[in-house]
Structures are given as structure tokens and as C-alpha cells.
Amino acid sequence: MTDYAFLTDELKRQVQSFEYGTQLKEAGRIVACGDGVLTIEGLVGVKSGELIYITGGKYALAMNLEEDSVGAILLTNARDLSEGDLAYCTGRIVSVPVGDELLGRVVNPIGEVLDGGKPLKGEKFRRTESPAPSIFDRSKVNEPLYTGIKAIDSMIPIGKGQRELIIGDRQTGKTAIAVDAILNQKGKDVICVYVAIGQKIAAVNSVIQTLKKHDSLSYTVIVSSTASESAPLQYLAPYTGTAIAEEFMLQGKDVLIVYDDLSKHAVAYRAISLLLKRPSGREAYPGDIFYIHSRLLERSAKLSKELGGGSITALPIIETLAGDISAYIPTNVISITDGQIYLESELFHGGMRPAINVGLSVSRVGGSAQCQAMKEVSASVRLDLAHYREMAQFSQFGADLDVATKQTLAKGARLTESMKQRQGCPKSMGIMVLELYVAGKNFLSDVELSSVNAVLSEFISFVSEYYPYFIAGIERKGKLSEEDKKSVETYFAEFKRKRETV
Amino acid sequence: MKERKIKLTVTSARPLTEEQKEKVEAVFSKKYDCLLEANYLVDDSLIGGLMVFDGATIYDGTVKSKINQIKEKLGND
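^ inputs. structure came back:
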């Protein structure tokens, strides 16, 4: 009883001693709204990029600060917004919830959940815009990030902290490469973030189902702003994904982030800029179209040991039209990233999948992000394939070829064939090293071209069955010693004999 | 001296008398030293008091906001 009396007394005391005055709030009035863009009069002290609160629980982002009005973009879907509504400054820059509770969830760019599960607790927030790590905060990129795709990990290797662009026409397998890279991070202690910008809802759902099927959703965060979302949300999506990734990076973890795709991001930003009446430039894109991508991609880095050694590896995706990589947005992003994986529809339709054009693809980090075993087996592969492509043009003329040329052609054809890989089947490093060694040393010269991949996978099963620790040994050591090489040759000879007797 | 016009929106819980309206306008025209165009609205959800919006700042002296302030303070302790 005394407790209640004490409480009521305490409350009474607090209420009576409360000093209230007239509250002063910075406010503005909406004078025009439409297409997700608001013009607000007043809001004198608003800062650029500040979050604006509109009565009714709606939020907008202040983008244009003019002498007597503010241009803001709506972040929440608001059908019942009207002219005359009051808008308030919040004093905050846009932030999103981050942390472990995001893993396995599908969220929209302002942190609302889309997978029908529990709303996020929001224990920790991080600004969507934050400066990239400085020069002294970074360390060299020297750890490999395996995509599990042979053609990439051997000839266009990606390191942790690198930005590697995936560029190609529509329907050439860009998203497939990115998703395979995510699938391959299972059990490797790498957190993945998949940012869908302007995609079809069905396409995003398909990605989620693939990740679920392979049990990869538990280490992935999906940030989705599909084509039916407003342009401001599509514009914000990659920055939200990067903020989420940065939180993990600062904890010392490795993160892989996929931006699918930045072409649609540029289009969304163009829509916003035109609605805000900003001057348009080439192809109607605004003047800072380079800056929106450069400041995004510079946040992917490898941090120094003092800061925990975490990293963000970025795989931005750009869609080209008719293979034109010299268009405005593609050239912008190519100059920002540390290399590109170039996919061609000709190769795709010719049966080469993944349709990677090895000649035009490059990784500017290259060998320093490869382990010694992989470096050795892939050293000659690129050259061999280049020679093969040159000579393949000769063979079309049906001329009489000498033995050496015929051998080069046979080896090159089998090497090319071995680079084909099924979607959704990323391979481990040890398996790739073994397959490349066998194909590179021309052990497959007497195998039918169409059965090259079948023979290779049979060989891998053979080694896994009879010499189970060999592949794991290569992966652990990262090296292929002379002994190991001799062992491979012996195993292959044995495998061949077995096959022939069958 | 520039004669700008400022649009005032005064919202009260009950309609204001002419005397009260003059008092409000006097305070604000002294503050801004220019012409005022006052627009009076009535909203009884404010319970009591006055809220003035001059285009850039809201001066909120309503009983509703005072209750909200107490609510927030008690909620924090």
C-alpha cells in the first residue's frame, strides 16, 4: 500500500514541478507534392540530407535547399499527403537499422521488413551516407574471395576488398554469377548482402528461393527496392546495403555485397533529379551521376589490422545495351571499379556458360589475391586460351594443319569446354585447382570434347573416394607441391585405367 | 524598409475574440516589423491554448502539447 502512495506522490511532485513553456519547433508547409517529390516552404534551418518528418508518420529526405523553399523526396509511400500539411526537421540524417538481426531477413531501404516476419528491434542504427575509409585506414587486398566459378577464380581472380564489375547485356547471366558467388560463401565466414534495385519482384523472389534451397539465407541480408517502389527508395537502396555491410566490416568480418543493378539505380536518380528540376546533362543524367556511384563503391575496402581487418567486396552489376560498354554509365562505373567481368550474349547463345569473355575481362588485383596453387595452374591457362582463339580462326578455313597446331587446337578446345559450368554449382578451390591442372597439362587429349566436363567430375569423385584427404590438403595448404603434382598424374593414370576397363 | 507580407496561421481550441486576435497580431507584427495576414483556424483537439505558425517556426502553446511534454518526461524517468 505504501508503495502506491509513494508512487502517486512522486508523480504528483513531478507533474507539479514540471516547467512547461511554449514549444518552438522548426516547421514548414508543403506547397506542392507529386511523383514522390515535395516542395516545402519554411523549414529555414534544415540541413542537406536531413530527414524531414511530415504529420502522419511520413518521412522525406531534404535534397534541394533553395532560398525560400526546400525540395524533398518522399521516403515512405504516402497517398494521403496533401498541400498544406506541416513538415518538421528531425535533426537526423537518414539511418537504417544494422546488426546481426538483419541476417536472413529481407528489408526495404528504410529498414522495414518485407519477408512477413517480426519487425526489426532496431538496437543499432547507422547512417546510409558515411565517408569511405581513408587512405591510412586501408590495407592491401591480398586474400582471395572465391566465387566458385572456374573461369573467374583462375583468370579474373577477386580479392577481399576489391570492386569487380559484372557487365553485360540483358539475359547473359550477370545475376547468376553474383548469386553463385553468394552460394559459394557458405561455411567461409563471409556475410553477404544482396541489394536489388529496380528488379522485377519475381526475379528477387527467385533469388531468395535459390538461396533458401542451398541454405544460404542464414548469412545473407537482402535489401529490396523493386520496380514498383518509388524512385527515392530505389535511389536509397544501395546506400542502405552498404551501411549494413559497413557495420559488419567494422566488426572485423568479411562482407560480399552485390548491387543488382546500378544501371537501374542511375535511372532512378535521373528521375529524381529531373523532378527536382536539376539541370540535366548527357543522356538527361544529372551532373553528379558519377559521384553517386563513386561514393558508393569507395566504401568497399579492406581495412587495416588496427581497425579489425574487415572488408567489403563489391560486385556491382551494370546492364549494357547491344554490348556497348562505351556508353555513359558503363564507362563511369568501369573507371571506378578494380576490374570487370564482361559477359557476351554471343558466347551465351553459343553454349558457353558462364558467357565470360576472358579477353576483355580483367581483374586489377589479379595474382596477389590468389593462393600459390591457383596461381600456378592458371598461369598458362589465359595464354593458352588466347592462342587457341587466334588459331581457331585459322582452322575455320579447313586448311591442312600441322601436328603442333592440331594439338594446340585440341588442348584449347578442351580447356574452353572445361570452363563451362552449371548455374548454381560453385566449386571449391581444391576441385578447381585439380580440374585446371588436368586440363592444362592436356591429360584430356583423348577424351571426346562433349564429355570433357563429365570426365572431370568423374575424376573428382574418384579422387574424393579413394584419396579423400588430397583435395582438402590442397585447400588447407594453398600450395601444389611437386609431390602433389606427381600424385595427380598417378591418380589420373589410375582413373583412366579404371575407366577403360569399365 | 521592405514591406514583406507574412502569412500567420493561428490555430486555437475555441474561436478567439477580436481582442485576443488583435493581441496576437500585435506581438507578431512587432517581432517581424512587416505586414501580417492572419488566418484563424479552430481545432478542439488542442484542448486549450494557441498554436501559431509563421511559415518557418511553430509556436506551440497548446494544452495538448504540454500534456505530450509531460507524457514524454514521465516516460523517460
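Chain B touches chain A through 15 residues (CB under 8 Å). The helical segments of chain B are 18-32, 63-76.
thumbs up if we can close this ticket
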